Amino acid sequence: xxxxxxxxxxxTSATASDVEQLVDKLPRERLAWMLQKMCEIRYFEExxxxxxxxxxxxGTMHLSIGQEASSVGSIAALAPDDLIIHHHRGHGHTIAKxxxxxxxxxxxxxxxxxxxxxxxxxxxxxxxxxxxxxxxxVVGSGIPTSVGIALALKMRNSSQVLLSLFGDGAVNLGxxxxxxxxxxxxxxxxxxxxxxxxxxxxxxVEKMSSVKPLSIRAVAYGMxxxxxxxxxxxxxxxxxxxxxxxxxxxxxxxxxxxxTYRWRGHSKSDRNVYRTPVEIESWKRRCPIARFKQLLQxxxxxxxxxxxxxxxxxxxxxxxxxxxxxxxxxxxPDNLEDEVYAP
Amino acid sequence: MATQVIMPKVxxxxxxxxxxxxxxxxxxxxxxxxxxxxxxxxxxxxxxxAPASGILTELRAQPDDIIPVTEVIAVIxxxxxxxxxxxxxxxxxxxxxxxxxxxxxxxxxxSEPATGKGLVGAKVRATPAARRLARxxxxxxxxxxxxxxxxxxxKNDVETFAxxxxxxTEKEPKGPQLPSKPLxxxxxxxxxxxxxxxxxxxxxxxxxxxxMTHSALTAPHITLALRVDMSEATRLRSQLQGPIExxxxxxxxxxxxxxxxxxxxxxxxxxxxxSLAEAEIIxxxxxxxxxxxxxxxxxxxxxxxxxxxxxxxxxxxxxxxLLERARSRRLAPAEMSGSTFTISNLGMFGIESxxxxxxxxxxxxxxVGKIVNTPVSxxxxxxxxxxxxxxxSADHRVVDGAxxxxxxxxxxxxxxxxxxxx
Amino acid sequence: MNGDxxxxxxxxxxxREALSQEMRRNPEVFLIGEDIxxxxxxxxxxxxxxxxxxxxxxxxxxxSEAAIAGAATxxxxxxxxxxxxxxxxxFMTISMNQLVNQAAKIRFMFGGKAxxxxxxxxxxxxxxxxxxxxxQSLEAWFxxxxxxxxxxxxxxxxxxxxxxxxxxxxxxxLFLEHKLLYGNKGPVPAESYTIPLGQAKVRREGSHATxxxxxxxxxxxxxxxxxxxxxxxxxxxxxxRSLKPLDKETIARSVSKTGRVLIVHxxxxxxxxxxxxxxxxxxxxxxxxxxAPIRRLAGRDIPIPYNRVLERAAVPQVExxxxxxxxxxxxxR
Lengths: 343, 422, 333
Description:
Chain B is an alpha+beta fold. Helix content of chain B is 23%, strand content 23%. In chain C, the strands form three sheets. In chain C, strands 3-2-4-5-7-6-12 form a seven-stranded mixed sheet, sandwiched between helices. A five-stranded mixed sheet of chain C has the order 9-11-10-13-14, sandwiched between helices.
């Protein structure tokens, strides 16, 4: 399949045949892994929520319950040494990229052995050796930084690719525009992934963005753009994989829009006054995990019993991680100034 | 397995919630995720979902109750489960209460304004440098007039003040009060004679007068004298003259040698380096030697501080510096007071001996006379030896005759055998 | 060539030399900014560098200050050593998010497990008739952000040594170049050398008063000191060189010696770095030796005007420094 220099097609969903092919082509273990990760994300988020209501978490959190397929589908398409950079609603990305859940929970709880020594918290988890270049909390700030990361990859003639994940709110920032343009002119090895969960904080995408689907903005930068059913993990995988292949081949960036939905409010102080319970319910019925299980069962790749086992194992993993993390030590204020400057 | 229903934290800073109403009743079957009760926070009414499926029981919250976050308000039992009778469910396995307060032990840096101790004249407008100097010299800033903006006192104002004052207003040690009134002049008739000049009786002269009067009137003086054979001392001086001059650029005087000797000896005679202060006699550890110097108008006594730990060369230097500055009126008041023992030498005027008045609050004072070649009786007959009179006045309240004598003898012994100074 | 191995070159040439030498030494050092390639940089600093190092390492960008800053941040996060240029310091406003929220904070937020070794070079200051939006000195904003270092060299030799040091520093360093300094010449060693950050320099010794200054105000203060010397007033001029980290010891030592201090900077007085310096002096041991209030001489609290006379009047000039230093010396005397 030849890859023209600038593709401006706008695909609204990966074709059913793409997905069927993937179910057959992908090794069973890989599919099981994807299910495992999605379950781990779900349980992690629920556990986080529980800890919060019990008053054990300082600050707030941004849960991605309902968006598991977007995280896992995108990141599963990466090679092990590929990189991601993401944002405040990033627990899912972090888990999908292979983070140690205990250390994640520890960071979440502000503990010293956490990924960022308790200095970053939920919004700023990074696992640099694992290729997770970090979540940052100012909407869209990771996007210009992505340009730099991808620039370094290109200047070093690396075969690595970067996934730059952000939400629907970020696409209206000036930084989005500057960054996609720069990535395009220099053909940087980055895939821009917009996880459109329909709302900024309370601002619905319909009201806040001048054009839909969001991926159509790719035209403005001469890069391929694609909109995908973000709750179908293999559809996401398919689209992102194509974009990664393009990037790795030196054909530059793409913009993928994963259409999904967040079940919980923006953060813990969100009263959900901007959407209706009916709407939330309708999306819950399209749960990405349930859909994937159904797909695997229908394709006769796995039995429900085995998948329940994976599910329960994920739950147990998260619970174990939480118990351990709760017992880990707090950081000391004595060395507060330590990590401000590099020596 | 029973699931506790708690007042949840739904806001970053929430500590209590107001219970509004139950949406299910005691004994109802509830499903996980189903709206179970309503609470009120400062933002709005919020529906809270059931955390588990089962039978709702043990409802504890009433409408309008204000309930702390994490407090248990109900229990959801599995079907057919029965709660064991327990008086206080809240205690058993209750979720751990609120966060450990992460108050750092070291807060943000608080900048403390630099303050000095014992600010003199705290309401006076003065620069830090001026205050510092005033503190060092023991000057009351309220006495100083400032040349800066709005009368602000600068360092040079304090210096000027100090230079015009040769006596610092140090605290007098407690003791008998100075006579407050001078002798009434009208009591003694003045001679009938033409006046050459009328000199105001004030300033340093007056202060010296008061001190000497005080000393003479309150301290019973005993006076002891002896002659010292300065042959060895003279030999020492001629040996060291050259090297000292080379090293310091100054001449080695007998006064310096005597000062060195006295400083070495006084520690053995503590009552001669002491002060009587009302109810106690203070024996001083330091030996601050006052060396009386006569200027044209009056006497000043520059002080060699901590003479006990100075060697001859250092004494020569210090003495040279003090004397030079004394003559050019550049001594600070602090350098002209605070001595613990005084030495006066009138030998350069040809005076062979004299009786010093003790400089209060010291307990003794040593007068040095001229070195005169005098025939003395020695083992080998009559010889001319360079003899020098030493006269010691001591305050009999503090020092008795024998102590004074021992000291004086010690001085003689040392001057006659200066090798003892090693 | 001078006897000591230095030669007279301009501040601008010294910067160019620093960049070239570091780029030769380390292949991961690269330049990124607007019009720095073929054009040679808006002020000519990078002229010739493209020819030696090629377009990969001398990267012209679109007008995208946010993306430039992000690109530098991301590349630094990966371990490269970008030197980004913001054409006029005024445009740093567009880069602020990347510099303040990403570059300055990534290391700390990630528990020390990352570092951002980048340099932000930017021409600052007034005097070229560029008016309000092309003449600002905004160093105070960045000094106030933990995680960023700030340097402001006054002489060609300092410019070279500090730029090399900044490139080798493992943190984001903001490097201020005053536009009027580019043409100044001074002795500069030919070889590569560094000047440590956090080290001030006493450029002229004196006993009557201390002037604390940086960037162009050092030059003006030295000129002022020369004129004052003819009147018998000896002022000591301290060139801060590095605003953050700051050499508090040299400052305290000088002010303790003279007892009087005049702080001079171009940026507007209110909220300017001078306030911080005054507090540093007051909190130091030098407080006890102060014989006059701490004085600041800084830019007027106005945007820089266009008209030449007005522009001059907006910031301290040599005669202003002379007058202020003289008045300070005589306060209370």
